Amino acid sequence: MRQETITRLYQCLLRLYPDSFRARYAQEMQEVFAQELAEVSESGPPALHAACLNELRDLPGAVLQAHCREQLTRISQKASQQAGWEGPLPVKELLAALMAFALPVVFILFNSPSAAVFPVSLPAILILVGILFLVGMIKGFPRWSLPYLGQALSIAGYLVLFNGLVDLLKPSFVAQLSPGLWDASTRMLLETFWAGFIWLSLLVLTLLILGFLAVLRRFRPFYQRIRQDWTLVSFILYAESVLALILFFDQQRGAKPYAIASLLLLGSGAWMYLRSPYVWQRILALFSGLSLAMWVAFIGRWLVLPGLQGSIGLRWPETDESFAELETWRLALQWGWIVVLLLVPALLNRLHPGKRYRPSG
Amino acid sequence: MNKALPQSYLPLTEVTYFILLSLATQARHGYAIMKEVRQLSTNRVVLSTGTLYGALQRLQDQGWIEQVEAPEGNHPGRARRVYRLTHLGQAVLAVEVERLHSLVAAAHQTILGAGA
Fold it and tell me: pTM of the predicted model, to two decimals?
């Protein structure tokens, strides 16, 4: 076989390699092969045939490896570009973020169900959360500080919405209801609205605060990070559900194991979120953590805990459903609303992605 | 595993080892690497162009070698791409040589010690 024929055949076989590999090395490979052919052909046809067979023998493996490498490179590039992922957190920062979910566990462990005893650990925990929130704010809200931002917002929201606005609205709202309207479907509609009102208000509060921060020059990098990865807002909302769970179990006898389990499941979801490079993985982590936490709360409330005290929702006159059924539905509605609101920022991520954020340093 | 440490990349494959060894003393172009590897391995490792450039791509991406332009001696003014070891590549090669030394030393001690 003539050298020109072999060279043309080699050029055809090079097309089996990925485009990027060919762009980088094809010319060089042809030169090297041509040099090799020129040298071995001086030793006669057997040497020439051996060189060609050597190329053919290694070709499938080399082509396969080149394609695999290209696919892996594409996947990792896509993950880092499209997901807006800032990379894995250092261990210390990961622990700092997870502590936001562990501190409420400490609070529950040391919190006495007796209303007469003021829980000593609560001020210490609130101060610690406050300090970490401030440290995060000074550092421009790195990812580890976002749960503390969420908890600060939820506490502020609780103080303003529940103790202020809700108390203002509830008496007048309920007073307008005539006895004839208290059928099951109307009650469910109003409960749905009420649960949504709480979480929509928190979302609006969160977005307002983030919008305010965007105006301040110091926090513009933070805003840009959110524009590139809206799931950061989902994460903040996720952390706000911690207070909802604590309030849900508040002062319930025998509730500690379920409360602790729920909070640990929330923490697990946060851990998975912080480790996930893809958007769908991050949303799935938050969805799973929240759902599992709510299911544990569901089971605790519905199956095990007798004599429920207190309510987080509207107060109705006597109805056919038991109070436990009503509270369970309320929890399910809360879950539904939180899940919807968790997905809203992810949808924004798709519809209005920001420019690629490049961390400084 | 800390990927910044050269030791974390050991052991090297034979192809990788010989390619790094061929670049230990000077930068070379692709064909020169091919010939040097064949010589160093006493004709045991015969690289095809596909294997060679697949390895060169991987080593470049890992940061163990880098490509530079070098003027071709036979064709003055015509630049030719050659490869050379980076600091990381040199460090990896050094620790691999040390590892192989210790393996051979252990074998010698065992065999010579048993024979004595």
Answer: 0.55
